[in-house]
Specification:
about 240 residues; mainly alpha; Serine Threonine Protein Phosphatase 5, Tetratricopeptide repeat; about 0% strand; palmitate; BamD-like; BamD
């Protein structure tokens, strides 16, 4: 009897939970939903804003607020670190609205979203720079900002995009430098030389490119390639590392 009572109570609780969840977003006119979402956005309550905007998007996908709802969702997803949904919403918006007046902002947000994917909670908490982690999101962000500058040269987001591209270029160069260092420690001399030359070719104006000359010289010395050692030493004098 006791077991039956507990089971019954659990069933009632589950049903009550489902019922209350369905009532979180009331069935109100779209203007009311949108106003509530805007209030949540302005106060930084991203969870509430997303709930209202998602309800508005699902109930009125072709309504008067459709485009603005998508734009607001992109921002709210980014601020709440829901990066996968943010990226999906960005791709959807650009696919359906390639010539939208705010398309440059959406491309800019795609770059920010990819940049955010390159960090981790632990790295942020302990202020750790792990240049050897997979840089794919940073490469995607660099491509996004480059596209923004090419496609929308007059965009108000161009200046910030340029600054972020400098940061990303150093991030990518440092990754290749860390990879070259890994090859040196493993005594994979040819692989180390190739990666050093890649840093110098792709990111010639970075500190990583200058640092890579040291690793390249070490690899040439181990291979007894004296002419290459001397050439690298000359390059090091012309491009001293800090």
């Amino acid at each position: 009897m006791k077991r039956l009572t507990i089971t019954t109570l659990l069933a009632v609780a589950l049903l009550s939970g489902c019922s209350s969840k369905e009532e979180v977003i009331p069935d109100v006119p779209p203007s009311n939903l949108y106003a509530t979402a805007q209030t949540a956005l302005q106060s930084g309550n991203w969870t509430s804003a997303i709930e209202q905007l998602e309800a508005l998007d699902s109930r009125y996908p072709f309504g008067a607020y459709s485009d603005q709802v998508q734009l607001d969702l992109i921002y709210a997803y980014y601020k709440s670190d829901d990066l996968a949904l943010g990226e999906a919403t960005i791709e959807r918006f650009l696919r359906l609205n390639p010539d939208h007046p705010q398309a440059d902002w959406v491309v800019y947000m795609r770059g920010l979203t990819h940049m955010a994917q390159d960090r981790s909670f632990m790295h942020d908490m302990f202020n750790i720079n792990r240049f050897d982690r997979d840089p794919t999101p940073s490469r995607q962000a660099f491509t996004d900002f480059k596209y923004l500058l090419e496609r929308y040269p007059e965009s108000e987001y161009g200046a910030d995009a340029k600054a972020r591209m400098i940061f990303l270029k150093n991030r990518l160069a440092n990754y290749d430098l860390a990879t070259a260092d890994f090859y040196v420690r493993r005594e994979a001399w040819i692989a180390a030389i190739n990666r050093c030359q890649q840093v110098q070719r792709l990111y010639p104006d970075t500190e990583a490119a200058r640092e890579s000359l040291k690793l390249e010289k070490t690899a040439y010395e181990k291979l007894n390639l004296q002419k290459e050692v001397e050439r690298t030493e000359k390059m090091m004098k012309l491009n001293p590392a800090k």
